[in-house]
């Protein structure tokens, strides 16, 4: 689809390539999000069928078998009933931060509840990507901002019983490299070894005023604090932090989602870190790859 990267396409090209359900299914198959083939319990290849009413399913045509299964079953998009075209365009819109409730209602006819859900699904992909790509960041003459956040895994291959989970994440201002770790609690004994593991000595570190960080200077870091609950402006130097800049840009898009500032920071942090870690790569191609990696069809 144009450009050097075969995965690259703009919004117009995307819309023009998706006339009907067949094309949407093919698109999601090519991206590794839907099955490209399924086998019935009798071991026979199933065929994909498209109904006029919008139902799409795999069927075994063997007379004595006649098993069928919905195209979405055991995939990332299950059990959503959103039309496939809406899902694809939503993902595209999300990449460019268009997916405010207003935009989704007007352009895609997606309900408010579905917008919140789908924003969460994509944020979850971001979290998984970051949790699997943690490496040491920072070093001399660099600044790393550290945040804690709640992570709510909900989708199928994480298991339904898992409850809320704290994560600790950091971003290097200069290189935009990030790390993210799951933590059982926010105690000093838990968070300090992770910082030591993920951030190079000599780094200037910004954290919130959480007590656990009080002795972080002993590990060889230049420690500063920011009061996130009141503002995101560094009181010591008056400079805006990364998260403040991001907060301002996303305020408009999240209007009407009825959440407090602190909640927003919690649920949006990993999305923000994921975006920062792209280093100019095409977000649409990257998020599709990440979905296929972490939620392959089962
Ligand atoms: Zn069969």
What does this entry look like structurally?
It is a single chain. With 298 residues, the protein is α/β, with parallel strands linked by helices. The chain has a domain at 134-276: Nucleotidyltransferase, domain 5. Helix content is 35%, strand content 14%. The protein has 9 helices and 8 strands. The chain has helices at residues 11-16, 21-30, 84-95, 101-108, 112-131, 188-198, 242-251, 261-276, 283-294, and strands spanning 47-50, 56-59, 68-70, 143-151, 165-172, 178-183, 204-207, 222-225. The strands form 2 sheets. A 5-stranded mixed sheet has the order 6-5-4-7-8, sandwiched between helices. Strand 2 and strand 3 form a beta hairpin. Helix 5 (112-131) packs across helix 8 and helix 5 packs across helix 9 (283-294). It is elongated and about 70 Å long. The relative contact order is 0.13. Residues 155-161, 231-240 and 250-265 have low confidence and may be disordered.
Dominant shape: elongated
Give the biggest beta sheet: 5 strands, mixed
* Helix-and-strand structural type: alpha/beta
Extended strand count: 8
Regarding CATH, which class of the domain at 134-276? Alpha Beta
CA-atom Rg in angstroms: 22 Å
What is the compact description of this entry?
The protein is of the alpha/beta class. The chain is 35% helix and 14% strand.
